[in-house]
Amino acid sequence: MPELPEVESARATIEAAALGRVVVDVDDTDTWECRPHAPGEIRAALLGHRLVSAHRRGKTMWCETQDGTGAQGPVLGLHLGMSGRILVTASDGRLAEGGDWVGGRYGRGAEHPDRKPEWDRFTLTFEDGGTLRLFDKRRLGRVRLDPDLDAIGPDAGRVGVAEFRERVGRGRTAVKARLLDQSVIAGVGNLLADETLWQARVDPRRTVDTLARDDLTRLHRSLRRATRAAIRDGGVHTGEIIEHRGPHGRCPRCGTPMRRASVGGRTTWFCPTEQV
Question: What is the set of domains in the chain, with CATH numbers?
Answer without folding.
Answer: 4-145 (3.20.190.10), 161-270 (1.10.8.50)
